[in-house]
Amino acid sequence: MAHLRFSWVLSGPGWAKCTVSDDEAEAEVTASYITAAPEGLLTAVSRLIVGETECRVQFEAEPTAFRWIFRRQGTRVWIRLLEMVHGGDHDNAGTVIWSTQQDIDVVARAVIRCFDEVAGKYGEGAYRGKWREDFPRAELEALRAAWRAYRGDWAAS
Fold first, then answer.
1. Which residues pair with 76 in a beta bridge?
2. Going along the chain, which residue ranges are E strands?
3. Which residues are CB-contacts of 65 (< 8 A; sequence separation ≥ 6)?
4. Residue 47 backbone dihedrals phi, psi, to 5 degrees
């Protein structure tokens, strides 16, 4: 079975550490609340589930940025994580700090599990107090619904 793990740890007021790993490597990136980083990640995976072939999310770490690039072909997703000196730069200016290829089902499960763990660890009230924005409940539930529909369609075929 493929291994993919995401974690989201609130590290200070308005700051989070996101760790991602597979069987080969691990990367840790920082995100600031100045952008909708968790909402963007959840929405990108939802969009992949419903058939988009490329999605991007950027975490701002002031001044560094971390850009997630997701490309889907069939049921496979290639994820590249770039470190950008300047967030507005072209992808080619970034440094790949982690990449993986996974099944879309594995990606969705890992991201859903991550944010379910966040909700369980902090609770939505404490999350808002630490992150300074609401827990991304709507985006998490939209991803969960898209994944369930995908699994239902997949299981029926």
1. 73, 103
2. 4-12, 15-22, 26-32, 54-60, 65-73, 76-84, 95-103
3. 58, 59, 83, 84, 86, 87
4. -65, -35
Residue 120, classed as helix, strand or coil, is helix
Can you say how many angstroms the Cα of residue 53 is from the centroid of all Cα atoms in its chain?
Answer: 16
Closest CA to 71 of 90, 94, 48, 87: 48
Per-residue pLDDT of 55-92, as tens digits, reads: 999 999 988 999 999 999 999 999 999 999 999 999 99
pLDDT at 154 > cutoff 60? no
User: Given a cut of 80, is residue 157 above it in pLDDT?
Assistant: no
Q: Sign of torsion, CA 40 41 46 52?
A: positive
Q: Which stretch of DSSP H or E encloses residue 62?
A: none
- Spatial CB neighbours of 8, under 8 Å, sequence gap ≥ 6: 16, 17, 18, 38, 114, 115, 118
The burial of 79, by beta-carbon neighbours within 10 Å (0-12 exposed, 13-18 middle, 19 or more buried), is given as buried
- Evaluate whether 37 touches 60 at the Cβ level (below 8 Å): yes
Report all structural domains of the chain as residue ranges with CATH numbers, in order of start: 4-156 (3.30.2450)
> Using CA atoms, how far apart are residues 61 and 12, in angstroms rounded to an integer?
13
